[in-house]
Input
Amino acid sequence: MTASQALIFPEQTKSGQWIAVGTVAELFDQGDCVGVQVNGRKVGLFKVDDQLFAVDDICTHGNALLSDGDLEGYEIECPLHAGAFDLRNGKALCSPLVKNTRCHSVKVEGDGVFVQLASGEA
Ligand code: FES
Output
């Protein structure tokens, strides 16, 4: 099982709802990048120091999962062509990327991690 397939919690939810995706310990036991599915959407979760960030897991440039990429500070580098995004705002930082990624809200309550999907374009 890859990190991207580690946790899948298919739930039918209303837009704007916080969705439980697991605990901090479960999600990040293999590293600081993990892919989950939230209401059918692939979301990459990233831990930088003690802060969590959630963005669309599929790169805006091609068919690669950012959760399989390299995390350095607040930058996640795509494993396929090395494009990088800023996790704080989803901005595409270098070529070949031409499109930002979508950021989702993420919070920790107790030891549970919850994601609220953003709507619209990145
Ligand atoms: S698929 Fe991500 S940079 Fe090309």
User: Anything to note?
Assistant: Residues 89 and 103 are 7 Å apart (CA to CA). The beta strands are 7-9, 19-23, 33-38, 41-48, 51-56, 70-72, 75-77, 84-86, 103-109, 112-116. The first helix runs from residue 24 to 27.
